[in-house]
Design brief:
Strand content: 25-35%
Number of helices: 12
Largest sheet: 4 strands, mixed
Strand order of the largest sheet: 8-1-14-13
Radius of gyration: 28 Å
Helix content: 25-40%
Structural class: alpha+beta
Length: about 450
């Protein structure tokens, strides 16, 4: 599994994200086959290398058929048109497909999608249910469908809130819908293909000013972006640059895939990808993505709960230890002590997270005779640890691998050792060493 970092200092949009993920190494053939399976017509994709402020970047372009020109883009560039508003609220895919005046160095894949079949989808506008049905009918993995569905649902909810209508009344224009479906499904395919399990996202850097859309001139950040960052705890930073850097699709992608906004204290960069934006601004319109590896030992704040108990039996304390551990305590132990008047007693110690203090205090008060508990905040440094399951000829075994500078330490898990001991009739020490050796044979170290 891989950890992805998205550096959104020039904002984020759907096409920028696809370009960055392709540049990271997402399989172009897998993406092409997925997009071919979409039951929609009238588009082709082009993947090429472009120069953005002198930086080499990957450009992902959704090219729509000539008879499907985008009225929203006419508004964006101030062109005349004669489109008549319906009574539904429509999503505007502004900023996803802007000026194409940057220089292309064509090392591109140019595929045309021209489906002859009719799937019964509306060709004037599509609602969320119809778009989710399109995604569901594509030949893509369940994980890709989930990611794409999540992104579109977040986008539709934001548009509904921004315009004061129900989510069912949000309709996506035919052209904007095709462009958005392709971008969003492409992002989901690339995330799945790169085997990403964690996504760290920087604050989204946004511009200022106003943009044109079909309903008129609206401020930046556009209302849908504001709704998404508010509802999904996303950090937004307004810059002094004029223009729209964060599109609703870009914000929805972040909301759907982000797992953290904090980078590890130390990490190495394994791969770098740069995706190109379409517009030309004063600063480079790029999205930089990195596959990173956490190399820092983990330091956590933990708490120790401590209580001296001189009138509680060993049987009771044994029960309490098991209960505390089953409720999620990090560690529990009790030790013999002598209290005032030389009374023999036990000191109960519980190691736990701050958010669990109240729960464990309640258990201790209910299950023992103590009337007071001391609390102490502590710092704990942990080695970088990974759990793996290996196959041996005696059965599966779980091992814990810890990094210590340039050395790896292997610790077979107790339950795996006991299980193999019971099946094989061999001793604990013999099986412990057997598991270590099997891990080494597999090339672990």
């Amino acid at each position: 599994m891989n950890k992805l970092y998205l550096e959104c200092y020039s904002g984020i949009s759907g096409d920028m994200t696809v370009g960055a993920l392709l540049d990271l190494g997402a399989d172009k053939n897998v993406l092409e086959n997925a997009l071919k399976s979409l039951p929609i017509d009238g588009f082709k994709i082009k993947i090429s290398r472009v120069s953005k402020s002198g930086l080499d970047a990957c450009d992902f372009d959704v090219i729509l058929d000539e008879d499907n020109h985008d009225h929203d883009m006419e508004y964006l560039h101030g062109e005349e048109h004669s489109h008549t508003n319906g009574k539904h609220i429509h999503h505007h895919n502004h900023g996803e497909e802007g000026s194409h005046e940057h220089i292309h160095h064509h090392e591109d894949i140019n595929h045309t999608h021209s489906h002859e079949h009719n799937h019964g989808y509306s060709h004037s506008h599509r609602n969320l249910a119809q778009i989710l049905e399109i995604i569901d009918n594509a030949e893509i993995t369940p994980n890709v469908k989930k990611i794409a569905n999540d992104i579109f649902t977040i986008l539709a909810k934001a548009e509904a809130k921004a315009h004061g209508v129900s989510i069912e009344d949000v309709h996506f224009h035919e052209v904007g819908a095709v462009d958005s479906i392709v971008d969003i499904v492409a992002v989901a395919v690339c995330i799945d293909n790169l085997n990403i399990d964690e996504v760290i996202v920087s604050p989204l850097y946004e511009g200022t000013g106003f943009i044109r859309c079909q309903h008129g001139v609206i401020p930046v950040p556009v209302p849908a972006v504001c709704e998404i960052v508010r509802d999904n705890d996303i950090d937004l930073k307004i810059t002094n640059y004029e223009g729209e850097f964060v599109t609703p699709t870009g914000a929805a992608i972040v909301a759907a895939i982000k797992t953290s906004d904090k980078l590890p204290d130390k990490f190495t960069i394994e791969k770098i990808g740069i995706g190109a934006g379409k517009r030309e601004y004063e600063k480079a319109g790029i999205l930089r993505a990195m596959i990173i590896k956490d190399t820092a030992n983990k330091t956590h704040n933990i708490y120790k709960l401590e209580s001296n108990i001189d009138d509680c039996s060993g049987e009771v304390l044994g029960y309490v230890v098991e209960k505390l551990l089953s409720e999620g305590a990090r560690d529990v132990h009790f030790i013999p002590v002598f209290m005032k008047k030389n009374r023999p007693a036990y000191q109960l110690n519980v190691i736990c997270r701050e958010e669990d203090i109240e729960k464990f205090e309640q258990i201790i008060f209910e299950e023992t005779t103590t009337i007071g508990i001391r609390k102490q905040k502590m710092k704990m440094t942990m080695l970088k640890t990974e759990l793996k399951i290996i196959d041996t000829y005696l059965g599966k075994a779980q091992v814990k691998i810890c990094d210590l500078k340039n050395e790896k330490r292997i610790y077979p898990e107790y339950n795996s050792i006991v299980e193999i001991c019971e099946k094989s009739g061999k001793s604990y020490q013999e099986i412990y060493q057997f598991i270590v050796n099997e891990y080494k044979k597999l090339g672990g170290i």
